[in-house]
Amino acid sequence: MANALIIVDVQNDFCEGGSLAVAGGAGVAAGISRLLASEPERWAHVVATKDYHVDPGAHFGDPPDFVESWPRHCVVGTTGSEFHPELDTGRIEAIFHKGEHAAAYSGFEGHADDGECLADWLRRHDVDRVDVVGIATDHCVRATALDAAREGFATTVLLELTAAVAPATTDVALRAMDGAGVTLHGQPVMRAA
């Protein structure tokens, strides 16, 4: 069996200067790249997810409520949907797009260009353990980690390589992940309150 790194939504719109920026996002991108370079044998496989919106309906709000609706972000064909330039994408074997026509937080809701879902891809590559990193700790990282555990993968979140939106939602996310048997390592990057 093998292990995999899942890089969640390290995209321009979620990093500083983006339309739905999370403080520390660019640092997370650079940190993931440093770790991949310094420990090239740590993971047998590396995959990534992307928010990839065409027309996600009520997921885009005007004005957004920042609970169920958000500013326009990660629209297909825009620079905001691209990976942050600090993220080294050389090791990424597959990208799973999510949220084209509806809200989608978990990478396990996404699919590769050929239509294969993340869980099937991991199983086809004999993966039984995953580490999750990326943006945001309290939203898409949380959802992806919970689904990974639900799918039966031994799941660890490397919190030092995640960026969080807010303390309150991050506390809820950490409790939920811990309660689901997800191993939590380190502390998320979070802007000062």
Automatic annotation (TrEMBL):
Keywords: Hydrolase, Metal-binding, Pyridine nucleotide biosynthesis. Signal peptide: none annotated. Residues 4-183 form the Isochorismatase-like domain. It holds the Pfam family Isochorismatase. InterPro entries: Isochorismatase-like_dom, Isochorismatase-like_sf, Isochorismatase_Nicotinamidase. It is an enzyme of class 3 (hydrolase). Pathway: Cofactor biosynthesis; nicotinate biosynthesis; nicotinate from nicotinamide: step 1/1. Its EC number is 3.5.1.19. Belongs to the isochorismatase family. This is nicotinamidase. It comes from Micromonospora arborensis.
